[in-house]
Amino acid sequence: MTQNKGKALVIGAGIAGLSSAYYLLQKGWQVEILEQNDLTNNCSYGNAGMIVPSHFTPLAAPGVVAQGIRWMFNSKSPFYVKPSLSPQLISWGLKFLKHSNQQHVDHSASAIRDLNIVSSHLYNELAKKEEFDFELTQNGILMLYKTEKVAEEEIELAHTAIDLGLPVDILDKKGIQNLEPNAKLDVIGGINYKCDGHMNPVKLMTQMISYLKNNGAVFHTQHKVTGFEIEGTAIKAVIANDKKFTADQFVMTGGSFLPELAHKAGIKIHLMPGKGYSFMHNPENPANRLEHAALLLEARVAVTPMGGQIRFGGTMELAPHRDKKNMNRVEGIVQSIPNYMPDFRVKLPKESDIWFGYRPCAPDGLPYLGQSAKLKNLIIAGGGGMMGLSLGPIFGKTVSEIADGQQPSADIRIFNPERFS
Ligand SMILES: Cc1cc2nc3c(=O)[nH]c(=O)nc-3n(C[C@H](O)[C@H](O)[C@H](O)COP(=O)(O)OP(=O)(O)OC[C@H]3O[C@@H](n4cnc5c(N)ncnc54)[C@H](O)[C@@H]3O)c2cc1C
């Protein structure tokens, strides 16, 4: 760590906020973090733990709308948009429709790929530090399919990935089964994205918090930011719990709550919460052991080996925040598992054992990352959507570079946080 450069105040203790704090500390900033809750839960804890350079296609892509509409009428389906006249949803939906085309995918794929690849390398570096051991396993992710239609789409996507320089194997039934010698797979084939990996996000988050505390970062939990004091083009202070917090540099994360937080600083950010569920399965049977993380494609279910257990996750409900568990959706996940892994006997978990979180989903599927044009001492890092965990380190590194007045090492131009303003 280098000399003190001044004080940086980070809002939000998800992976985007903690990673920002980590890299700012490395560069010699004094760091404080404001978090509205405690440090035990947000979207960065219960996710599927996958590191995904394979996810170079933004959520807004051709075919997503038609598939989404088909799924909307099934209460167990993995994708759901709650019909509503909410202006937030309508405005988001119109932008989503505008971006669901091949031109947008072609325009953004290489930038998303690059961000994810650098971030994955940064996770490798982090895992080498003695303070960290978060089960990082860089052995690929298997995309498993059962139908010819999905096989065709996925093989086409795999060829695009190969054209983008990603290491990818297209495997038949036998080839994919060879990668999972302990678990019987009922699929017609799969793709191994060898550039991907997985980890234990709860371990990552708790170890990151300990590291930050041990290295001088100060956390203010149960402190919800409710206002900003702005003078000209700079933030003077943020208000939380009727107290003022001053700093030289402000970093706004906030996950799916970013729009309301940014609005308080006069900035418009478009995001919808994409609610998803996960739960842990304890495989008593050795035939339920997996070597790789996998996506069960038709069912849109994520499966990740984690700390001797397996985490299953899925569903995407686009709707305003609502902290109620929809057991039909979780049942949809549970019922799909034996279709792909016939020896797995996974029971519907108790409601109290089910986790849910809100992915911060931008309408064009791209993150928001960069310096605010409006407020010169504000950096925004959010909107990671389905890959927000993967992008954590590159978010943090970029934030620290901008705070230091450096040109960001990643090309972040298309992630401009005020692109819809
Ligand atoms: C089921 C599921 C599976 C997923 N799987 C993966 C995966 O395998 N790989 C992957 O890369 N991503 C995955 N994701 C997405 C990933 O989890 C998120 O994109 C990521 O965690 C978002 O991180 P964040 O820091 O932006 O937001 P969060 O983790 O939500 O953190 C934001 C924090 O800001 C705080 N905050 C908000 N407003 C205020 C305020 N006004 N004042 C103070 N604090 C505030 C919140 O309380 C919260 O703690 C998954 C998500 C889900 C739901």
Structure description:
This protein is an alpha/beta fold and 421 residues long. It has a domain of 178 residues: 2-Layer Sandwich (D-Amino Acid Oxidase, Chain A, domain 2), CATH 3.30.9. The chain is 31% helix and 24% strand. The protein is built from 10 helices and 20 strands. The protein is globular and about 60 Å long. It starts with 6 loop residues before the first strand and ends in an 18-residue tail after the last helix. Bound molecules: flavin-adenine dinucleotide (FAD). The site of flavin-adenine dinucleotide has 42 residues, from α1, β14 and β18. Flavin-adenine dinucleotide binds next to α1, β14 and β18.
What layout of secondary structure does this protein have?
Layout: E1 7-11, H1 15-26, E2 30-34, E3 50-51, H2 64-71, E4 79-81, H3 87-99, H4 102-128, E5 141-145, H5 148-163, E6 168-172, H6 173-179, E7 189-193, E8 197-198, H7 201-214, E9 218-220, E10 225-231, E11 234-240, E12 243-246, E13 249-252, H8 258-264, E14 272-281, E15 293-296, E16 301-306, E17 309-318, H9 327-340, E18 355-361, E19 368-371, E20 378-382, H10 392-403
Parallel strand pairs: 1-2, 1-13, 2-9, 4-17, 5-15, 13-20
Antiparallel strand pairs: 3-8, 5-7, 6-7, 10-11, 11-12, 14-17, 14-18, 15-16, 16-17, 19-20
The site of flavin-adenine dinucleotide has 42 residues, from helix 1, strand 14 and strand 18.
